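Fold this: 5-hydroxytryptamine (serotonin) receptor 3A
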Amino acid sequence: EEGRSGPTHDSMQAVFDMQPFRPAVNLSNPTITNISFTLYAVLGVNEKAQLLTTFLWLRLFWRNEYLVWEPEECDGVARISLPVKELWSPDIIVYEVDDDVSQACPYVYVNHTGRIRWDRMLRLVSACNLEIFSFPFDVQNCTFTFGSYMHTRDVRVSPALTFREMSDNSKQYLEASGEWELVNILGETSILKFGVDEWDIITFWVVIRRRPVLYVVNLLIPSSFLMLIDILSFYLPPHSVDRASFKMTLILGYTVFLLIMNDLLPSTANGTPLIIYFSVCLALMVISLLETVIITNVLHHSSMKYQEVPNWVRIVVLKYIATMICYQWPEPELQLICQYLKDLHAHLLSVQKESELLDQWCHVGYVLDFLLFRIYLLLISCYAMVIITMWCIWI
């Protein structure tokens, strides 16, 4: 009560009896609620359900015009605590919240000017439109909209601190906070219109960034190693080693990464995640396996069928393509063979023909193998440069 009575038991009871009514002497004057919060922790991000779980320290301020006294007349008492359930409190909610778990805080502080401070600790599960295109180097921008549920313009909202101060306070507690780090907190006040009714709202944009080290170490680096092994497998001699079995083992191992990523990425997203490069790498490994099948088939001609190499294949592969990729012919071995065949030309004509056919098919296989290997290496290099460039831009 205003006047000389001060915060006595009787005066408090009179205020408690008016709890259902908004504490304004003139009801045409709105009650202004000041809001601030500290983002204490990001507890989890559910990409599949598009939900963000956070822990907030929320602080509300408003004025009760019935709780005003002079401290000098009350033994210097300038602030008291009262049960929140006995006083009127604004019905401030977060519009995006799917689940709200609040720890009990039964008291509020009231100073002699009637200004009330109510501190609450909230565990919020809120809807957030998650952008996972650049996963695991993604930055999320989630919205918290504070406003009254029932009251229209008779309850106004405004920030109790500047958005910069809220951001700095939150960063102080989020410095060592798990997978996510806080980038910034922005906000603005606006008016929400629904028909003829209008609500005062304050919108906060909480920008958080994922720490990608775990995903880089457990997924990207092992994936790069497998791709490197796939590239080095082209140096295995295709005529004496079962290169196809080796590549199929690599493909099987790579499939494990795709199964792991299935559990991490949302089932529906606004855009294709960048991590889809795993699927592209798998496709490249399948292409390299097809190349091995082709080369094995070519070498099969040299060892089983002894068919003569067509003239156009000799010209295109052994002449032009071999020159283009700088294929080195094994000159010393050929000279020895030629010398040997000259000495035994008359007696070993059939052996000479088989050796020539074997050499030709082997060279055709090697030239095609080198050509396809260089094309495959060029594809992987271009793709890696594009991915690295895009990630550097996002980071």
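Residues 214-394 form one domain. The mean pLDDT is 81.
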